[in-house]
Amino acid sequence: MTFTTLEDVGKFYRNYAKATGFSTRVRCTNRKGNKIKNQLITCSREGKWKSKISPTEKTNPTAGLNCPTRIYIHILKDVGAWIISKVVLDHPHPCCPSKAEMLKQHRELSMSIRRTIENNEEAGIRPSKTYQSFVAAAGGHRELNFIEKDVRNYITREVRNVFEQEDAKKFGKYFLRMKEKNPNFFFELDIEEDQSIKLAFWADARSRAAFEYFGDVISFDTTYNTNSICWGVPNDFAFWTMVICFMYNLVCGSFVGVNHHGQSTLLGCSLMKNEEIESFKWLFQCWLRCMGGNAPKEFLTDQCASMKRALEACMPTTVHRWCIWHIMKKIPSKLNGYWNSHSKDSFDRNWNDFLLNFGLADNKWLSDLYEDRHIWVPIYLDHHFWAGMRSTQRSESMHSFFNKYITRNSSLIQFVKQYDNCLGSREQAERESDAADFHTVIPCATKSSIEAQFQDAYTHAKFREVQAQFRGKANCITRLKNSALGYSVYEVGEQVSSSIFNKFVITYDSVAAEVKCQCLLFESRGILCRHALSVLSFEQVSQVSPRYILERWSKKVKRQHTHIKSSHDEPLMEPRSKRFDQLVFRSQNICEFASESEELTAILHRAYDNVMAEMESLKAKRKGTSSLSHEDANLESVNELQSPPRIRTRGRPKNRLGSKLDKQIANATKKKKTKVLSEINLFDAASAVHSNSSQYQGHVMNYQFRVPAAGDNSLGV
């Protein structure tokens, strides 16, 4: 059989192999210069591979069975066609056409499949889910010409294939690209002496603008999962840190605020090599510079001694609070009823009762915890505004988002891409909530004009919290204790169960229109409590003072950050991938229009056939060589340039210096077994050497050899 091109021969033999039930591989290729002269294609089970590991230790499957099946191809010089000159068809092993599709050679990922895999990986979709989506679209596993392993291999080989030497450079280039897109993008790196990254912090322009509105209360956390702690644990307890970039053992820390919908919003991210005091100092000072030197009013962290000392040094006026969830994880549930007291005196009494009842008066860890009660017990902190936060759960929820898509082999550049995805999802959640506030209204649950005030001003999420307090009024009984000169003291009993009532003291100043409750819900969360609402209802107040309608939760405020897009890095695609995406995007509208009827679909099919024929004709004409000059060259055409084919040489190169002399000596040796060298015309040989080396005379160097001294085994040049 003869073929026009070598590619046609390979395609034909692969198709034959698939139909027969085996796969092929190119065994050897001979070239003359840059042109291929002949090629040997064999069955993939040709040869015999022997493992270096002893079979007693481990046995791996092998496909090599010395299969002789092969074809030999060479080019016909006169006509330029390729001919199959030798064929062996017999296999010593069974072949099954129905199983051939499982062989690696016959599995293929099309351009469409590859682009979908890349986009899904960018979006953080797991490979198994990506593969299942292909199965569902094709109508079953048998309809696909690849398996799930091919999807995973493509991700590992092409998408996630980042060399350690290049990873840090790509990490830095990402920051530069973001800075070029928006000058308000902020980043700083702390570099070790060996130029490795020790600390990194960055925040996009939207986060910096959002800090103006939501930077009053910040949650910062590096904890992912706590160890089970027993009694006697020291104050600087050990915990598992969330290692995001397992490849480099870096710890992730995120600055998280609360927006006007009560949603978490990212205000900066960091990667740290360690959790020492100096590292936290560098990070907090860097974050303050990023936010214009404005420290938050309140700062929530886990129970970390290094973090506490760094905060005291960098933000001395900021109120620091420990995450109560981390503390309660290390204390039995029996303490729950003791720490949630409504006054400092009652907490002290309850704490002492707890120590006496369980015989823990001498426990040092609990003693130290009591000394630090002002930074974790609610009654010591709830007179400050915390936007409803008592724990670092918001930061940890961000970390859990990353943990879904970051593996132990993840790189720095993969992490920042997932951080971009997290920023985008937070931005979209806020935009959707803003749109719902603008277009819809939540009806009032009561006839109260005070509820209508909050309905008009607050976002949906915060108005629902207000409504929950209005519903809770039904469980409250209000009793006036004393009143004088417009200043009244009330006692509100709230029924929490069939037999338990909690009592709260509420003061109301009718002159100043001010109400205060012992539960401190408004002070800590910015929401009027049901106890205060009961008193206002008792006093027949129809409108609350504007001080109780916080601008923090308002839906009417025009916030600058909503007009800024979160940072997102454009994928660095190959020119062919870009062209493919553009074509797919345009064809979607055409296909949607054509699918309306059978007639339109038929028109599009005919157009596809005509276009395909035209493109194949053009491609056939362009086979061969082409030129690229400075007049028509561009970046895309240069990116598509490939290196010349690598030539595999055997032995020493031809036409080297002295080759004629070597040939004469070799020929003379074959003819005469003895006394050959004396009969060779050395004069001709020397002249041959001289003529061959004349072109190098301009580069000849004179080497001076020295005579080795006694005991000197080296030869000096």
Protein architecture, described:
By secondary structure, the chain is an alpha+beta fold. Among the domains are: 2-48 and 62-102, no CATH class; 111-159, no CATH class; 166-226 and 242-323 and 395-431, Nucleotidyltransferase, domain 5; 441-563, no CATH class. It is built from 24 helices and 19 strands. Strands 6, 7, 8, 11, 12, 13, 14 and 15 form an eight-stranded mixed sheet that branches. 22% of the residues are buried.
Report the β-strand fraction as a percent range. Answer: 15-25%
Number of strands: 19
CATH domain class name of one domain: Alpha Beta
- Describe the main β-sheet briefly: 8 strands, mixed
N-end to C-end Cα span: 60 Å
Mean pLDDT: 80
Q: What is the CATH architecture annotation of one domain?
A: 2-Layer Sandwich
Protein name: SWIM-type domain-containing protein
Pfam family, one: MULE
Organism: Arachis hypogaea (Peanut)
GO molecular function, one term: zinc ion binding
Please sum up the structure shown.
GO terms for molecular function: zinc ion binding. The protein has 717 residues and is of the alpha+beta class.
Secondary structure blueprint with pairings:
Layout: E1 2-3, H1 6-20, E2 24-32, E3 35-43, E4 70-75, E5 82-88, H2 111-122, H3 127-138, H4 148-159, H5 164-181, E6 186-191, E7 197-203, H6 205-214, E8 217-221, E9 223-225, E10 240-241, E11 243-245, E12 250-258, E13 264-272, H7 277-290, E14 298-301, H8 305-314, E15 319-322, H9 324-328, H10 336-339, H11 344-357, H12 364-371, H13 378-381, H14 393-405, H15 412-439, H16 449-457, H17 460-472, E16 476-484, E17 487-495, E18 501-509, E19 514-517, H18 521-525, H19 530-538, H20 575-594, H21 598-621, H22 635-639, H23 659-671, H24 682-693
Parallel strand pairs: 8-14, 14-15
Antiparallel strand pairs: 1-5, 2-3, 3-4, 4-5, 6-7, 7-13, 8-12, 9-10, 11-12, 12-13, 16-17, 17-18, 18-19
Helix pairs in contact: 2-4, 3-4, 7-8, 14-15, 16-17, 20-21, 23-24
